[in-house]
Amino acid sequence: MSTLDPGRLEEAQDVEAADPGGMLRQVASSAAQIREARRAAVEAGVAALAEDGRPRAVVVTGMGGSGISGDVLAAVCGLGCPVPVTTVRGYRLPGWVGAADLVIAVSCSGTTEETLEVAAQAARRGCRLLCVGGAGSPLADLAARSRGVFVPVRSVGQPRSTLWGLTVPLLVAARALNLTDVPDAVLESTAARLEDVAHRCRPDSEPFVNPAKRIALDLAGDVPLVWGSSPLAETAAYRMCCQLNENAKYPAVYGGLPEADHNQVMAFDGFFARGAAPSGPSDLDDFFRDRSEDAEHGLHLVVLRDTEEHPQTAKRRAASVEMARDRGVAVTEILAEGDHPLERIATMIALADYVTVYLAITLGVDPTPVPAIQELKARIA
Ligand SMILES: O=P(O)(O)OC[C@H]1O[C@@H](O)[C@@H](O)[C@@H](O)[C@@H]1O
């Protein structure tokens, strides 16, 4: 059983010992992934996808840490994108998808059954096909058989930590199709920002100067509501919840403004907000005794705050934070850095990724393996 021990985050050697699968190293490789994946996408001839002109729609299919590449692509293309960009998670390609559309199948292992199934449907319907994932995999074979473009991706360990290796080929394809403006200079500046986050969050930097360790300690024992203050930040919020689930084996609820102000905000007045949180190990109570007047662990609002917000949404964000604090709900804000949408989403994701790994470590949970996911796959095999 996992127990909370803030001391586990103090010394670099303890942090490393608590991370036998090297998840912190995997997270730190994000900048290198951007550079390597750009080269791989260019070498694989992704630009050839533009030869037949712009598709009617872009449909990304993938699961878990791979599927989210579609959300990141849509967020970076933004509301100004001339064609719809959508993500399909599951076994079926929607009926409207056809030969006029580009389908992008993403799977780090290249073996995920839902992704292979949807990619095969796309090939049968004559869609333009781009496959991104493990070399020599069933997905690579499918791309070859269907004369699709295939970009090989080197896994850095887990699919979810290979996020940028899996996403950058999609961005390179989208820029070839004139769906978004992500020049090499932006890929490079994003990589540089990720290196900077990695430096600030490195294992040997102590909790009082390490933003990720500090947030992890604040969050431990609480029930996180993770909200994004823009569509871009909402995608980062979803990613943070998935990383809380898979790295920290921790529950989390994601939302985005303004929608969360129409439903989730009610939780500020509910059971979890009053500190009547689910009973946990009693050492949690001691640890959180002096965190707030209410003493108990309860609801924790994590706001991923974009620098570009609709003015009304910015008002809603500020009012929501104030209302949470008035009610004794803990609040943490994570700020986007940079100007370009890619820099902004990548910096929020990077800091949040580190938070989830340090939360795992302080809870005594190994961040890397996902045994329940494996068990599920085995049960249905
Ligand atoms: O990227 P692929 O290999 O398709 O995996 C997709 C997802 O599969 C799940 O079962 C987990 O392993 C996730 O962490 C992963 O993101």
TrEMBL record:
Coiled coil: none annotated. GO terms for biological process: carbohydrate derivative metabolic process; carbohydrate metabolic process. Residues 1-20 are annotated as: Disordered. Transmembrane segments: none annotated. This is Mannose-6-phosphate isomerase. Belongs to the PGI/PMI family. It comes from Actinomadura verrucosospora. GO terms for molecular function: carbohydrate derivative binding; glucose-6-phosphate isomerase activity; mannose-6-phosphate isomerase activity. Residues 46-182 form the SIS domain.
